[in-house]
Amino acid sequence: MRRIWAFPLMMVLAIGVPQLVSAGWEEGVAAYKAGNLAEAARQFQSVTEEHPEWPDGYFMLGQVLGKLKKNQEGLAASRKAYDLKPGDVRYQMQLGTAYLQSNRFRDAAQLLSKIDESKLSAQQKKIYHQSLAVALDKTGQSGAALGALKKAAQSSPNDADAQFNYGATAFNAGKITEAIGALEKAVQLDGKDPAKRKALVDALMRQGRQTRGSSKASIYAKAATQAQALVALKGTFDNFLKLGEAQLGGARYADAIQSFNQAAAKNSGEWIPHFYIGQASTAKADYPRAEAALKKALGMQLSSENQNRVHKQLGFVYEKQKKYEAAVASYERAGDSAGATRVRENADIAKFNKEADKEAAEYDDLKRKERELQEELKKLGSPPRF
After folding, report:
1. If you average pLDDT over residues 46-57, what whole number do you get?
2. Which pLDDT tens digit goes with each residue over 58-99?
């Protein structure tokens, strides 16, 4: 599971302040809210020194130190708050967050898993489930991590990021139907985020590749619609390529060729748009255009694996045009011995059929001439008798 959110720290909550606390507390809160974290840390440090048995002072100090990326000091302060009042869910969650920031994922998973969710607010539940998901994933519990993200999405149905986090992780786990459902919600809530639309296009494309039958075309059509919206948001090479791939999968070959040409215009040094143009043109039975596109792809910098892909497609295009020698050469370059053998056999058959057709034509011509001779003899009549 990829890390697709920042670890959220606990927000400043309404904390009961004993009368004995000095002005350092109020000054620390004011500095924290103003973004002056160094001053806030100094003030909360003085509070903990003056009132070492009061957990809220350590709670705020740990939170500020975490924002300052002083993870070990923040962990120590958060741990002190927890030890003073281990039953308080605020301290449990902050210590769990501090464990995550210090890469102590097993400790985080153990602590966060014990939290009573019923004591959490809606905002806390979202933070809790996301933090728990990271801890579980980092300790090899990917299935449980996905479950935590699902709960985060369920507890925050109008939070686009929560839906996106769950959908993207479900996609990586191979749960494509779940991923699409969550990502569609994310796009509905935040349709202007290219990352969310891209993730939805990727999920729909994978579903299209995995689907057989009549519904395949409709899935690719949905992918193309989302990809078109993605291109409108961000007309990059990659996004035009995705649009073309969706159109190609949905058998919209002319549209796909246009999209691949737009992708090629964005990056003239990339071979893949020309390869896809070759595929789309092959599907349209426009073999000369396919041949030209594939040859252009071969003229670019390619890995040996990609050269094989292009040569194999080119071999098929040559074969369709009955350019047998060129087809055999391309298949052999691609390492496709079966394709080369098939073409040789087809070439032999074509040669045999051509010779047979020639012999049949010659035979038919002889028969025609014989009939013409007989007709001439009839016109001359019978020879005279003596």
Report:
1. 93
2. 999 999 999 999 999 999 999 999 999 999 999 999 999 999
Which among 266, 275, 260, 196 is positioned nearest to 235, based on CA atoms? 266
The per-residue pLDDT for range 258-290, each reduced to its tens digit, is: 999 999 999 999 999 999 999 999 999 999 999
What is the C-alpha to C-alpha distance for residues 178 and 187, in angstroms, rounded to an integer?
A: 14
Best CA proximity match to 90, nearest among 68, 123, 43, 133: 123
Instruction: Yes or no: say if 83 and 59 are a contact pair by the CB < 8 Å rule.
Output: no
Judge contact between 257 and 287, C-beta under 8 A: no
| Residues 75 and 101: beta-carbon distance below 8 Å | yes
**At how many degrees (to 10) do helices 142-155 and 176-189 cross?**
30
| pLDDT for residue 200 | 98
Q: Would you place residue 15 in the very low, low, confident or very high pLDDT band (cuts 50, 70, 90)?
A: very low
Residues written for the chain: 386
